Amino acid sequence: MNKARGVSLIELLVFIVVVGIAVTGVLALYGLNVRTSGDPMVRKQALAIAESLLEEVLAKPFTYCDPDDANVETAADASGCATTPEGPGPEDASETRHANLTPFDNVNDYDGFAMTGIVDLAGNSVAGLDAYSARVAVQPAGAFHGIPAGETLLVTVTVSGPGNQTVSLSGYRTRHAPNL
């Protein structure tokens, strides 16, 4: 007698179903990767914006008096200021981040600063960064590695970008009066 060779209809249908399920899973994973492939670029851009803004803030002085005060370099506390002790936020409404106006001149001035659409220090919009926003929070850090409370600030920059990508960076700035 001859044995029949080949595949039965049931075996063929089971094979088609198993292969179909596997191909569907692979295509779903591939589709997810394609949809999120731009996210690393958005995250890297948000990180670059946050690093730049944090560096800008930390480069400003942190003294007891406003940098325009006559006693800024010698004041041992806020009572040693001739006119304007330094505090959170800008000392007057004319201070802004833009260098061509009255620029922020102290770390504290950036407290509460926010921008939607990234702009440079001259106030010009940076092309391609309209969908990003940034905000800065400046708060006392308390005692920090042997430095007394009130002498250190924690600066936190948070940048949000397209697709709900958010990056937050923090840095510390200590107070100093160079001529004491």
Blueprint of the fold:
Blueprint lengths: L8 H27 L3 H20 L36 E2 L5 E2 L10 E3 L16 E8 L11 E10 L3 E10 L6
Parallel strand pairs: 1-2
Antiparallel strand pairs: 3-4, 4-5, 5-6
| Class inferred from helices and paired strands | alpha+beta
The whole-angstrom Rg is: 29 Å
Note the gap between the termini: 110 Å
| Largest sheet geometry | 4 strands, antiparallel
Number of strands: 6
Taking pLDDT < 50 over at least 5 consecutive residues as the criterion, the unreliable ranges are none
Mean pLDDT over the full residue set: 85
Instruction: Please count the helical segments.
Output: 2
Order of helices and strands: HHEEEEEE
β content, as a range?
A: 15-25%
Strand order of the largest sheet: 3-4-5-6
Work out the helicity level. Answer: 25-40%
Shape field: elongated
Count up the domains.
Answer: 1
Walkthrough of the structure:
The chain is an alpha+beta fold. It has one domain. Helices cover 26% and strands 19% of the residues. The protein has helices at 9-35, 39-58; strands spanning 95-96, 102-103, 114-116, 133-140, 152-161, 165-174. The longest helix is centred in the first third of the chain and has 27 residues, at 9-35. The protein is elongated and about 115 Å long. It comes from Thiobacillus denitrificans (strain ATCC 25259 / T1). Residues 78-97 are annotated as: Disordered. InterPro entries: N_methyl_site. Keywords: Membrane, Transmembrane, Transmembrane helix.
Task: Summarize this entry quickly.
The protein has two helices and six strands. It is an alpha+beta fold and 180 residues long. The strands form two sheets. A four-stranded antiparallel β-sheet has the order 3-4-5-6. A two-stranded parallel ribbon has the order 1-2.
